[in-house]
Specification:
213 residues; Immunoglobulin-like; alpha+beta; 5-stranded antiparallel beta sheet; 3 domains; 1 helix; 44% strand
Length: 213
C-alpha cells in the first residue's frame, strides 16, 4: 500500500511504498529538492511533508540549476517547433519543379463518381503522376504533384455493373463488379493537354460516357 503526498516546491504528486514510523528524507522527482516526511499524528495513513531550511548558498545554487533546466527545455521545444513549422511550409509549397493540380470531373452532366486522372509529361525523362477522382473531385498537392511543363492527360472512370463477382483477395466472398465507363477518347486515345505551372493549378474536365455503357 502506498502513501501519496504533494511536493511543496513544484506540486508534483509523490508516493512512498509503505507506512512510516519515523522521519524520512525523500527527493522530489519533479524539481529535485529534498523533502522531509514524518508520520501524521492525526492520520496514520498519511504523512506530513516539510522542506528543510537550506543554507543561502545551496538555495541560490538550486534556483540556478532550475533556471538552467528550464532554459534548456525551452530551447529544445523551440527547435522542435521550428522543425515542425519548416515541414509544414515545405509540404504546402512543394518542390520547386512540381505543381499542385485540382478541379472537378463530370461525365455528361453528372460528377464522375469514381476514377483516376493521369498526368503524363511530354518530357519522357520525368515520371507520370496520377490521383484519384472521388465524387467528381480530384486534388494532387504540389509536394507529390506533376512536374512543371506540358502533360498529356488521361481520365478513367469506373461504374458498378450491378453484378457481384468473386473477390480474389478474399476467397469465398463476393464483391461489386466495376467496369470502365469513360470513352477511350479520354484515356487510351486521349489528346487532352495541360500545362502545369508553379503553385496550385485548377482545371475542370468534362468527359463522355463509353458507348454501350
Amino acid at each position: 500500500m502506498s502513501i501519496r503526498f504533494t511536493c511543496l516546491g513544484c506540486r508534483t504528486v509523490l508516493k512512498i511504498g509503505e507506512m512510516i514510523t519515523e522521519e524520512r528524507k525523500v527527493r522530489c522527482t519533479g524539481c529535485g529538492i529534498v523533502i522531509v516526511v514524518s508520520p501524521d499524528p492525526a492520520d496514520p495513513m498519511s504523512v506530513v511533508a516539510n522542506i528543510p531550511e537550506q543554507p543561502l548558498g545551496n538555495k541560490r545554487k538550486s534556483d540556478k540549476e532550475l533556471g538552467q533546466r528550464r532554459n534548456l527545455l525551452l530551447a529544445v521545444l523551440g527547435v522542435v517547433f521550428l522543425l515542425v513549422l519548416i515541414g509544414i511550409i515545405w509540404s504546402m509549397m512543394g518542390p520547386s519543379d512540381r505543381g499542385g493540380v485540382e478541379g472537378s470531373v463530370t461525365i455528361g452532366a453528372d460528377p464522375l463518381e469514381k476514377g483516376t486522372i493521369h498526368f503524363i509529361p511530354h518530357d519522357t525523362s520525368k515520371s507520370a503522376v496520377n490521383g484519384p477522382i472521388t465524387q467528381g473531385k480530384y486534388r494532387i498537392p504540389a509536394s507529390t504533384g506533376p512536374f512543371l511543363g506540358m502533360h498529356k492527360v488521361e481520365i478513367r472512370g469506373e461504374a458498378p455493373t450491378g453484378r457481384q463477382v468473386p473477390n480474389h483477395a478474399k476467397p469465398g466472398e463476393m464483391m461489386d463488379e466495376y467496369k470502365e465507363n469513360v470513352d477511350p477518347r479520354f484515356h487510351e486515345k486521349s489528346d487532352l493537354i495541360f500545362d502545369v505551372k508553379s503553385g496550385t493549378n485548377r482545371k475542370d474536365w468534362q468527359v463522355e460516357m463509353k458507348k454501350g455503357t
